[in-house]
Amino acid sequence: MTYVTQNWSFDPFIIVVAVLVFAHEVGLARLRHRSDPLRTRRRRLHSLSFYAGLGVLLLAVDSPIDFWASDYFFVHMIEHLLIAFYAPILIVFGAPWIPLLFALPVGVRRKVGRFVMLSAWSRVLRPLGRVVAGPWFALISFNVVMVIWHLPVLFDLSENNQTIHIWLMHGSFFVTGVLFWLQIIPSHPFRLKASPLWQAGAIMSTNVVMFVLAMALSIFSASNWYAVYAHVPGVTLSPFADQQIGAAILWVCGDFWAVPALIVVLKRAIDEEGSLSEVLERLSHRGTAVGAQALRPARTRAADRP
């Protein structure tokens, strides 16, 4: 029981979460005065998902999970899964973007809009924004970040430098996680730019990357990769056994997010194609529209409004 009740920390991130919750509630209140009751109820339900995502982030960085992650590699893998997958999933589904924008005063919102759309910087910001928010950038950056931070030299560097650990490692996991899930989960006002078949491919390829990383840490390795876990005082679990448990967590927990997400996008593909057989024909290149076109992101796709 002491593993649960002890070693909680007061991280400045708690203040950030409190400010975000307050701002979100202010935005919801302002939107309530200009929206119909149905849309207001929908925003409130989505806000619960947003707050749950913030709670998962707090669990990852302020609970004993963060404390024990310094001693045990497998706990660190649990922390990474929470930050890169489960928190972004909940936050993207919660679609907090419009309420947070409306938390700003009207004058500030107008200045931000003019800066983004009409200023001299807009010629750079808008194309850059389209690239960063694009499906391929999201998919590639998410998987690259997941792989490079598990390279021994970068992993050990982050463990020995908390600024790198918190702001670069955890920050990149979370930001690329949000970008990745914005391609799969409707999150007003962002539009789903990728086809359901592309989304299915993105989910499966990311899961494959996790499997390969897990196998590299366990089956294809005969020793511990990370020097920071080699001589931790008071830890009796061998570093290599610890690494194998962490690899198993990556391997098994990959299905916990991938399978439900894959079911959702395949149902979306069936709704679009008309039947499961049509989806399978397109995947096997036997349908009327064959080739790589079926797996390319669509130019536009309307998102479900909250």
Count of helical stretches: 14
**What is the element string, with H for helices and E for strands?**
HHHHHHHHHHHHHH
Strand content: under 5%
Radius of gyration: 21 Å
* Cα-to-Cα separation, first versus last residue: 40 Å
Give the overall average pLDDT.
86
Please report the total strand number as a whole number. 0
Low-confidence stretches: 287-292, 300-306
Shape assignment = globular
Indicate the percent of residues in helices: over 70%
What number of domains? Answer: 1
Content-based structural category: mainly alpha
Specify the biggest β-sheet.
none
SSE blueprint:
Elements: H1 2-5, H2 13-32, H3 37-62, H4 64-69, H5 73-94, H6 97-102, H7 106-117, H8 122-132, H9 135-148, H10 152-160, H11 162-181, H12 196-217, H13 239-273, H14 276-283
Helix pairs in contact: 2-3, 3-5, 5-11, 5-13, 9-11, 9-12, 10-11, 12-13
What do you see in this structure?
The chain has 306 residues and is mostly helical. It contains 14 helices and no strands. The chain is globular, with a radius of gyration of 21 Å.
